Structures are given as C-alpha cells and as structure tokens.
Amino acid sequence: MYKEIKSYSVVALSLVIANLTSGCGTLPTYVSYEGERLPPSSESKIVGNNDESHKLLKGLNRYVMLVCVNGKSTKGPILTTAAIAYPFDAALKPGRNYVGVLYGYLGTFAAGSLWLDAEPGHTYKVEHSVSEKKVYFSIHDVIDNKVVGGGVGTEPSGSALDMNCDKVVEKVKASESQFRYVEIYR
Prior knowledge:
The chain has helices at 2-21, 166-175, and strands at 30-31, 44-47, 49-50, 63-69, 72-73, 89-92, 95-105, 108-118, 123-131, 134-141, 147-148, 150-151, 183-185. By secondary structure, the protein is α+β, with helices and mostly antiparallel strands.
C-alpha cells in the first residue's frame, strides 16, 4: 500500500510541475517572408491583441491572434511551451498583405480574413469591436490610428486568391470545437 501511495504521489507531483511549467509565454514574431530579416525601418509589423489583464481567470481575457499571413498558416509547432497556438504579431514586407485573424473571449471565437497595404517602418494593429453577436475587425496604423485595408473582397485592385487567408480561416473555424454563432463583419 505504501508503494502505491508513493507512486501516485510521484505521478501527481510530476503532473503539477508539468502544468506549472507548460503554457508559458507566447509564440515569437511570425516572419512572413523568406530570406534574411529586414531592418525595422524596412519591414512592416502587424499585431493582434494579447490581453493579459486577468492572470487567474484567463478566459476573461480577449485575444486577437494572427492565424494566417499571405495564405500561409502561422500555427506554431505541436510541441511548444506557448499557451496559445498562434502568434500575436508578424513581420511583413511592405506592400499588399493578407492576414487571417482569430478573436477569442469566454470560449466564443470569431475569425476573419483581412488585407492591408503596408508601408515600410509602420506598425499596424488589428482592432476588434463586439456588438451583440457580431465581431467587427479593422486594421489601424498605430502612429495616426488611420484605418488601413479591410475585409478580403474590398481591395481596390481585386483579391490575390493565392495570397488571401480565406482557406486557412475556414480550416481554423472547422477545427475549433467551441465556435459559437458569431457573425463576422469587416
């Protein structure tokens, strides 16, 4: 009997240690282009929302993650210590870029596919607002808070189907078991 209790104690202690050490931090900045990293004055950056105001009740935090950039999923590796599978920021080359975003709050999720024309040295933030059962996404330049870009399909010169994030966003929606009836407006 003493052996059984001791072995259960070791297993329980191992689980507690694993739980305390896993899920720490977030994924690093996703770099959306090939080759050497550009200097900050030459690249653009886009950020979501990593609300960490509630340390104990993390479900009360609102998140906007980047699930796709220019047609490629940003999902992190399966074996990671990051608590969330997608990054909150990405480095972009200047010009037309597409991003897929995932909003999460209280087990409710919404996803959308957006575009922007990025300028070198600028940082952009994916903003969200919630009204009843609707989530509105927009992209703002952080310097002057000007809205840039919009929903896929509203581009001035048409959508680059091979670059937009519609397919990745649909996969994320299909894999997310907790998707609720939330309408997406861009």
